[in-house]
Each structure stands twice: as structure tokens, then as C-alpha cells.
Amino acid sequence: MSEKFSFEKLGQDGKARTGVIHTTRGDIRTPAFMPVGTAATVKAMMPESVAATGADILLGNTYHLMLRPTAERIDALGGLHKFMNWDKPILTDSGGFQVMSLAGLRKLTEKGVTFKSHIDGSRHELTPERSMEIQRLLGSDIVMCFDECPALPADRDTIAKSMRMSMRWAQRSRDAFGDRPGHALFGIQQGGLEQDFRQESAEALREIGFDGYAVGGLAVGEGQGAMFGCLDFAPDMLPEDKPRYLMGVGKPDDIVGAVARGIDMMDCVLPSRSGRTGQAFTRHGVVNIKNARHQDDPRPLDEQCSCPACSNYSRAYLHHVYRSQEMISGMLLTWHNLHYFQELMQGMRDAIAAGTFEAFQKDFHETRANGDIERL
């Protein structure tokens, strides 16, 4: 275990927790949302702009960075933090999810995965040991175990076989990670939607011992109801005194529901991807700025939001630059979305600390249900 990485729980309301993850590169307030910087950049954003939204940590993608520009090149240039000009913590995924999604381009064995690059067709091998090496070269603060993530739905035999191999890979990841003070290694619970497999996975991970634990294998097409059903029991199987990370989630209502079930960390490409496609998340729900009803509207996206898009520009302008395919459209909408997500996290942290999380959830859902405010 890392001597310079720790989780301090500051409050709890029901299953919802708030606290701080202490790292050598700074504190991460929880519940935490991690913007995704797939290729060493959060698309359409400067690093200092991402920090200005309130983000304490970013996620980098092992699969994409190992292919281009390569982990070895990033290491030679001083590591990922220096390379992308981000001095706060970085979590890197293991590369497993992206490789597993390359149906027809990869071969899976007990050793690991061989696959063809989606960029140029070159062949590569990713194993637990190689994943740990790549993440070491990148210099990430939080390293994820290499695992397999089967698509859902799947039969019980398939889920069991995959989960047990992931647990063997978790032990190999732990062994290969070694002793790295200041850097943390997270294990990943698997088992699909099956409670007994989730329990078996959690026990295997606890036996190995990790700095934090992720709930993996969700948000892969099973639907929100099934995901919440799994989260009703899966986080409770993980150590109380370690961070719990739900991978690849999600929409604002997914995030609130996950926090209510004991999750501390989340990541998703949705804020930036939606910003580039004309969608803005507000406390009143999703606004599609491409719609013609915004073309003469002088109001901001959200009158209670203090981001640059809402403070300085009208819906009419945002509609115009989106329809004109101007780059500033994706920049402003992404900034707004990331600001909104971080504001949502701060609201939950405050509510949990005050013991008013149930009221927060009620207001969150009622405000969204009322829909986007119409022009007076």
C-alpha cells in the first residue's frame, strides 16, 4: 500500500459519503467527478480551464496513449503531468475496456490480449504486467488493474469465467505494480449483475489488498435500473475505509443515484462529448442548443450558472456558433457542462456533510422533471 495515499471520510448520510483522498499531488474531494482526457487532453479545453471548473483529478487512457504518442515517449518527455500541463492527480485506466471493445481485432488468452491498433493495424500485446509498466511510464497517481470487462447481457458461465480471470490478473497487476510510494493501485470488482459473483470478486480483491476499489463492468448497456440494482449491493462488499470508484458513469441522474448507493468517484466522456454535439446539461435538464427555439433567446443556458458560457453569452449566440460550426461552440458548451458536473458534485458534498442529502435528491429530480425553463 502507498504510504502517501489515503482516504479520509468526513461525513455520511445514508450510504452517501463525503471525504478527501489525499495524494502527493493534491487532495481529491469526494464524491469526485473525473473529466476524461483520453489522449492527454480534455477535448476543447485548456488544462487551466478544466481546473477552473473545480476538477481535482483527470482520467487518462492507457490504450490510446500507448499507441500514440507511446508511453515511452511521454516518459522521456517528463511524464504525463508535464506533457499535458496538469499538475493535479491523474488516474489512468488499464486499457482493458478499450481492448475488449475491439471485437474482431483482438485475441484473448490467460496471458493477456493481443490486438491490432485501430490507428494503423499494428499488432500489440497488453498483459497485466505491460499495463502496469505503461501506467508507470505515464506517471499516473492512481493506477487501475488490468481486467476483462464482458459486455452485458451475458450468461452466468461467461460472467464467472471472465470475473475469475480478472481476479487472477488483479493478483498479477498487484505483483507487477510493486512498491511505489506516492502512487496508488485500485482493484476492479467484476461479476456482471450477479450478486454471488460480485461477492466472490470483492473477497478476492480484499485478500490481495488495494489502495482503492472500483465497481467495473457496469454502464455497458444494462440500463439504469439494472445498474442501480447492482449498486444496491456491490459497493457494500468493498472496504469501508477505501475509495469506491464507479467506472464510466455517467449522466447526472446516474451520478446522483450512484453517490446515494455509496460511490465516491466517477468518470465519463459525456460532458465533453455532449458539448461538442450541441447538448448542455443544466439543473433543468438537457438543452439542445441546435434547436431553432433558441435562435432569438437572449437568456443564458442556465441563469444560476456562473461559467463563462452562461455569464457572457446568450442562447441565441450559442445557437448561432453551433449552427455555424464554429470551434467556440464546443469550447463554451464543454466548459459549461464540466462546470455543471463539478457544481453538482459540490452540491452533493455539501448536502452529505449537512445531513440533507435526501432533500438534495428530491430537489434535483423535481427541478429536472419540470424541464428547461421557457422564455417568459
UniProtKB/TrEMBL annotation:
Gene3D superfamilies given in the database record: Queuine tRNA-ribosyltransferase-like (3.20.20.105)
Residues the entry annotates as binding substrate = D93, S94, G95, G96, F97, D147, Q190, G217
Against PANTHER family, the record matches this protein to: QUEUINE TRNA-RIBOSYLTRANSFERASE
Q: What does this protein do?
A: Catalyzes the base-exchange of a guanine (G) residue with the queuine precursor 7-aminomethyl-7-deazaguanine (PreQ1) at position 34 (anticodon wobble position) in tRNAs with GU(N) anticodons (tRNA-Asp, -Asn, -His and -Tyr). Catalysis occurs through a double-displacement mechanism. The nucleophile active site attacks the C1' of nucleotide 34 to detach the guanine base from the RNA, forming a covalent enzyme-RNA intermediate. The proton acceptor active site deprotonates the incoming PreQ1, allowing a nucleophilic attack on the C1' of the ribose to form the product.
Domain of life, per UniProt, equals Bacteria
Co-factor binding comment: Binds 1 zinc ion per subunit.
Cofactor(s) it depends on: Zn(2+)
The UniProt annotation places Zn(2+) binding at C305, C307, C310, H336
Tell me, how does this one assemble?
A: Homodimer. Within each dimer, one monomer is responsible for RNA recognition and catalysis, while the other monomer binds to the replacement base PreQ1.
Could you tell me which InterPro entries the record lists for this protein? Answer: ArchSynthase1/Queuine_TRR, TGT, TGT-like_sf, tRNA_ribo_trans-like
The record's region (RNA binding) falls at 248-254
Q: Which reaction does it catalyse?
A: 7-aminomethyl-7-carbaguanine + guanosine(34) in tRNA = 7-aminomethyl-7-carbaguanosine(34) in tRNA + guanine
Q: Which UniProt keywords apply?
A: Glycosyltransferase, Metal-binding, Queuosine biosynthesis, Transferase, tRNA processing, Zinc
Query: Which protein, by its recorded name, is this?
Result: Queuine tRNA-ribosyltransferase
Quote the pathway field: tRNA modification; tRNA-queuosine biosynthesis
User: Broadest EC class?
Assistant: transferase
The molecular function terms of the Gene Ontology recorded here are:
metal ion binding; tRNA-guanosine(34) queuine transglycosylase activity
User: Domain tRNA-guanine(15) transglycosylase-like: where?
Assistant: 15-368
The EC number(s) this enzyme carries: 2.4.2.29
